[in-house]
Design brief:
The chain is α+β, with helices and mostly antiparallel strands. It contains three helices and seven strands. The chain is globular, with a radius of gyration of 14 Å. The model has no long low-confidence stretch (mean pLDDT 89).
Length: 157
């Protein structure tokens, strides 16, 4: 359980990325993406599901999932890995007020959604909302690439 008195939930979630890279979180690896989604969805009683992105074109595949509790809210985390490194997809119920206040905001006129880009150390992240669900993609890939990826995968609210 992570308590973040001053940080928005989006920034606190990135602690999971750092912890995983450092080997601090035991995760059960799975070969089946559907198993990961089912396992995570069960932990929140099916109220919401992790964003299920197909990132195989980038050489990334889902390898594990975990649930973090941040400020009393459950955050579903799907971990993708490939030759280019790791990418985390965080999903939780929230609103755009959960985006860090200093994040750069980009409006996608075609999809009519806001995307928020921010960084913490070497980790870049892009936050967007689909209905009541927030998705944050986090990776050490260059921000421009991560933003383009998030934009291509995001669905209009």
């Amino acid at each position: 359980v992570i308590k973040s008195d001053s940080e928005p939930i989006a920034v606190a979630a990135l602690e999971t990325y750092d912890g995983f890279v450092k080997g601090q979180f035991p995760v059960r690896r799975r070969d089946n993406a559907n198993e990961i989604v089912e396992q995570l969805s069960r932990t929140v009683g099916g109220h919401f599901h992790p964003m299920g992105y197909d990132l195989t074109a980038m050489g990334l595949r889902p390898v594990a999932g975990l649930v973090r509790e941040i400020d009393g809210r459950k955050v579903l985390v799907v971990i993708y890995q490939g030759p280019g490194g790791a990418l985390f997809c965080y999903t939780f119920i929230g609103s755009e007020t959960d985006a860090p206040p200093n994040a750069a905001r980009f409006f996608d006129a075609q999809k009519k959604i806001n995307l928020y880009a921010f960084s913490r150390g070497k980790v870049n992240a892009v936050f967007h909302r689909e209905g009541e669900v927030i998705c944050i993609l986090a990776s050490e890939m260059p921000m421009k690439e991560l933003l383009a990826l998030a934009q291509s995968k995001a669905k209009p609210s």
